[in-house]
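Quarterly update, task 2.4: iron/sulfur cluster-bound model.
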Amino acid sequence: MQPTLFEGAKRLVYDDAVELTVQSMQAYGPAHDHWGIAWSGGKDSSATLTLILHLIEVGRIAPPRSLTVFYADTRQELPPLAISASRIMDQLQRRGVRCEVVTAPLDKRFLVYILGRGVPPPNNNTLRWCTRQIKIDPMTAALEARLDELGGGILMITGVRQGESAIRDQRIVMSCGKDGAECGQGWYQQVLPAAKGIRGRIATLAPLLHWRVCNVWDWLKIYAPSPDYGGWATREIADAYGGDEAEEINARTGCAGCPLASKDLALDTIIASADWSYLSPLKGLKPLYRELRLPENRLRKAGFEYLKDGSRAANPQRMGPLTFDARLMGLDRILSIQAQVNVAARAARRPEIDILNAEEEARIRFLIAAGTWPQGWAGDEPTADTPMDTLFGDGSVQPLLV
Ligand code: SF4
């Protein structure tokens, strides 16, 4: 007989972990009529989503009056995870679970913002605009709309997970840069409750906080796919992280070619498998994002900048947006990466990718043709590789040596 998670003589390795999850849901769930689940398609949030639904289905936790799943789609997701997410969405639909796909508005999407508006790709030294703009802000807007519909508060369930240190340390470390983390989950936990428009109307809960990564793999690979636990399409998620070696690889997931991750660990793992090797042109994204940040591809303020109150900005001659030539070069390269992948996909009868669609491409070309620059830039500034006097923050000037 198939062992169950909750009964029988055979105690499962993670029985206690599930039990703690049940207890936290029983403690906090009933205080909220409406629940939401912040899901990004990665391992932790997918485990959270499918386990919570299973626990409701088998009567271990009482269902809320309403449950809404918010799938955060950045349009840059790693393809195997995006494909699994779409299969799980079909399963949610068949069960009658409401699932909203949350995407940034066209002009705020990652590639449109970079190539259309000209804002350089983020890096670790700059303000990290991407997570807020393509994940947090759209999630806030979706939640605000849902809250207005429901007329009450929402308990937002996230996939933040820290393993046993969560119990030991009694505190939550929210770093999205951590190995094995899913970009965004920590932010949903930490930033959403204070976001304008929904402040005071949402509470957050991370019911898998204490789970070890092996618990997550066991759930995704063995239990969740079995009919007794819901028959979820989660096995492919574990495969995307490296199958049996997933635990050692411990890849952080988010956008393909994420400029903030030190290595393309997740993508490297994916293309190492024969089924996904046709995605290897995506390896060109990260170097492209790095190249776009080079001085020859950007404008620079020539002199001191003054703020509205008349004071001098601290950072003279700062580098700024991407030139039109650089944007068109970037657009061309991304389209060619996508085309290479899709030619190989069709030949091998594998799923195609869609990181830049026709609407987004047209919008980028429109914004470039309309001469669009980010706020504070006119487009007549010199390119950042132009030799010029050196200005210092204290107001001193070192003339250009000729
Ligand atoms: S995965 Fe990387 S590029 Fe995508 S939102 Fe997160 S930090 Fe930004």
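Highlight for this quarter: Residues 74, 76, 122, 130-131, 134-135, 183, 254-255, 258-260 surround iron/sulfur cluster (CB under 6 Å).
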